[in-house]
From TrEMBL:
PANTHER family: CYCLIC DI-GMP PHOSPHODIESTERASE PA4108, CYCLIC DI-GMP PHOSPHODIESTERASE PA4108-RELATED. GO terms for cellular component: membrane. The lineage of its organism: Bacteria, Pseudomonadati, Pseudomonadota, Betaproteobacteria, Burkholderiales. The keyword Electron transport does not apply. Gene3D superfamilies: 6.10.340.10, Hypothetical protein af1432 (1.10.3210.10). This is Phosphohydrolase. The keyword Magnesium does not apply. It comes from Comamonas aquatica DA1877. Residues 153-206 form the HAMP domain.
Length: 741
């Protein structure tokens, strides 16, 4: 086959000759499978080359496609429409893949290349290749299976641990050991995120618990800072409290190691934030957050130091930290409010104690001295580690309850009449009635003088009568003081003196109040004619004031008695009878006066029981109103048996008696010396009034010496023989404290 073309740049012709045999060899080389049929045709239909031997056809020229024995190629030429597009053709039940390709040879002429490939031969090769690749895949899978199993097991273990951790979190269990590291980065990151999330939630719960349960601000802040540091994944934290008076921030607590030095105190506004480049120790950043309460008031400053990483630079971290700091601010505000209310409450209680002492100047600082001594003795008992009180301990609430009870132990005295509390003489009411008695003696003196003037008495008889009046008044005046025990003979002499008469010339109803007139009319309807003879010392009906509607509910059988009082009620609310009061055998208080004094315990208990004490302080009324009870059950106001009296009740009793005996500001008795006081208290222990074991501890700790140095006069300080006091006490029992510890 010859091809030629004239060259464009010169007068020349370019030609090429191709032998048909060479074309046949080329087509044979292009066969994809042994059964592939190929033919190269001219547009005229002549076969230029084919994979069959064209010489067997015969003729001088190239044969036509129809003359060679290639029905597959003929069929392809007849049915093919789109060149260069493979076609699946079925001929006599056999599938072929045919491809008709046009080849442009220039000069407007072209050749057609026909290819017919047996589908089975093509599929057989594909199956061989598929089997080869499948074999390779199986071999590779067998090789990688152990490695995959090991890797899958490791990943599965990590995922299973993550699953268990997530289930614990779903069950509200945020604790747990850190998960082991994983070689799979995604699993490791997820594990670390889960760990941080659980730790943050647990820290947040701990922070909430500390805010809710810890009453002390300093301790609460320390616990909260530790939890806050963990929750925010910070390196350290510190908190300042705002001192409004000095307009300064005062350092309070910290957690972790602060990289940058912080001042103990600084003037507001807050310190400037420190950046990582400013830190001399390690790369840290700092965030300063103002702590403000519900009303926006400044409470303090929270300082957080954290690593210079992406998480802490995110705005979400600052929002999270600000929200946590808001909880801390409210907690500080609440604690400070509670503390201020507590200080106010304590101040009101001490104000009441001071008011009682101020109301009765003769009891001086009793309501102040007794609490100080009692609290100090209770603290010493709490601190002891051996002896019968080694197991005695007070919680913070119990100590505060005792503190309140000690300061309120005589609050009922606000209801006690002042003239009875301060009664220094037997005839004293609002005033000392001895002056009235003396005036009557003056009248009798003048009567004697008038009798002498009238000649009824001579000078000797006058002198004798006046001397008798002097002696009788001196005796009555000495009985009025109540310094010594009054014998039966003395009482008989009082009555003989009292029957002397004096003449009253004025109406005793004049100047009386409406109540006094009403009482006098009921007792003495008819007025005696004047002048009237009156006894020198009398117990008149109007001296006796009945209870009436004011009868207190303190008797054991009284249905109105709901507090368990057990006191004997005197027959009258008040008895001002002169002989009745002058005949008091010991001291200056009558039975009615003594009840009115003892009634302060009743009023103390009723007043305190009526208050809504919070949890932990319910025992304040008991602690305040039991220091006049006795171990033998004969005390007042409730006759509580000794086994029901606790250590703190007994502490109050001892301190109250010691202060009462040593007080130098009581008008009705001189103060006792130390030795006298302790001897009296030892005898009271023997009589089961006071606790002997606690009194021994009181002596051993020498608290009485400390109290004497602070409050007693120098002349009251004398030598104390502890061995002599021990001899007066009942025998020591090893189990003496078991019933009330």
């Amino acid at each position: 086959m010859t091809l030629s073309k004239k060259a464009t740049a010169a007068d020349a012709v370019v030609g090429i000759d191709v032998a048909f045999d060479d074309l046949e060899q080329l087509l044979l080389a292009l066969r994809a499978t042994p059964g592939t049929r190929l033919a190269l045709l001219h547009t005229s239909g002549q076969v230029m080359a084919a994979t069959v031997d064209l010489n067997s056809v015969g003729g001088d020229t190239q044969p036509m496609l129809s003359t060679i024995n290639e029905p597959q190629l003929q069929h392809l030429r007849d049915v093919s429409k789109d060149a260069d597009m493979p076609q699946l053709i079925e001929i006599d039940g056999q599938r072929w893949v045919g491809l008709h390709t046009q080849i442009d040879i220039g000069l407007g002429d072209s050749l057609d290349l026909l290819q017919m490939l047996p589908f089975d031969e093509l599929a057989a090769d594909a199956r061989r290749r598929a089997l080869y690749y499948i074999g390779m895949a199986v071999a590779l899978a067998l090789l990688l299976l152990p490695l995959g199993w090991a890797a899958g097991k490791a990943i599965g273990r990590s995922i299973n641990l993550l699953r268990e951790r997530s289930l614990r979190i779903a069950r509200f269990d945020f604790t747990g050991e850190p998960l082991p590291p994983s070689r799979v980065s995604e699993v490791g990151e997820l594990s670390q995120a889960m760990q941080h999330m659980g730790g943050t939630i647990e820290a947040f719960l701990g922070l909430t618990e500390s805010l809710a349960t810890e009453p002390e601000v300093e301790r609460m802040l320390q616990l909260v800072l530790e939890q806050l540091t963990q929750a925010t994944q910070s390196e350290a934290a510190a908190v300042y409290l705002w001192d409004a008076q000095s307009a300064c921030m005062q350092y309070c607590a910290k957690a972790g190691t602060i990289a940058t030095p912080l001042p103990e105190r600084f003037t507001y506004p807050p310190l400037p934030a420190v950046h990582a480049s400013d830190s001399p120790l390690h790369m840290v950043n700092r965030l300063d957050l103002e702590l403000r309460g519900r009303q926006g008031g400044l409470q303090g400053l929270l300082v957080l130091e954290f690593k210079d990483d992406v998480a802490h630079k995110d705005a979400a971290f600052q929002r999270f930290a600000r929200r946590l700091s808001g909880m801390l601010a409210v907690a500080i505000e609440t604690r400070q409010l509670l503390e201020s209310q507590r200080r106010l409450f304590d101040a009101i209680i001490q104000l009441m104690a001071d008011a009682i002492d101020a109301k009765s100047p003769y009891t001086g600082g009793h309501c102040e001295r007794v609490p100080q001594m009692a609290i100090e003795l209770a603290d010493r008992l709490h601190a002891t580690c051996d002896g019968p009180y080694a197991n005695f301990r007070m919680s913070e609430n119990e100590r505060y309850a005792f503190h309140l009870g000690a300061w309120l132990h005589d609050c009922g005295k606000v209801t006690s009449p002042e003239h009875i509390v301060d009664k220094a003489t037997k005839l004293e009411v609002i005033r000392n009635r001895i002056h009235e008695v003396r005036l009557r003696f003056e009248i009798l003196w003048r009567d004697a003088e008038l009798a002498a003037v009238r000649g009824e008495l001579d000078s000797k008889q006058l002198s004798t009568r006046q001397q008798q009046l002097q002696d009788d008044f001196a005796f009555v005046a000495s009985c009025n003081l109540g310094g010594e025990f009054l014998s039966d003979e003395s009482i008989a002499r009082l009555r003989s003196i009292g029957v002397q008469g004096w003449q009253r010339h004025f109406d005793d109803r004049l100047g009386l109040s409406t109540a006094e007139l009403r009482q006098l009319d009921a007792l003495r309807p008819e007025t005696p004619p004047l002048p009237a003879m009156e006894a020198l010392l009398a117990d008149l009906p109007e001296h006796r004031v009945p209870w009436g509607d004011d009868r207190p509910a303190v008797e054991a059988g009284d249905p109105r008695n709901k507090f368990g009082f057990d006191m004997k009620l005197p027959p009258y609310q008040q008895n001002l009878g002169e002989l009745h009061n002058l005949s008091i055998r010991r001291g200056t208080l009558s039975e009615e006066d003594r009840f009115k004094i003892n009634d302060h315990m009743v009023q103390t208990y009723i007043m305190l029981k009526g208050l809504p004490w919070p949890t932990g302080l319910e025992q304040v009324p008991e602690l305040a109103a039991t220091h006049h009870e006795r171990l033998d059950g004969k005390g007042y106001p409730r006759r509580i048996p000794g086994e029901r009296l606790g250590v703190l009740d007994r502490v109050m009793a001892i301190c109250d008696v010691f202060e009462a005996l040593t007080a130098a500001d009581r008008p009705y008795k001189p103060p006792k010396t130390l030795s006298e006081t302790l001897r009296i208290m030892a005898l009271m222990c023997k009589e089961l009034h006071l606790d002997a074991e606690l009194f021994r501890y009181f002596l051993r700790t020498r608290l009485w010496e400390d109290f004497a140095a602070r409050f007693m006069k120098p002349e009251q300080h004398d030598a104390v023989d502890l061995n002599a006091l021990e001899a007066l006490l009942p025998p020591q029992s090893e189990t003496a404290c078991d019933a009330y510890l």
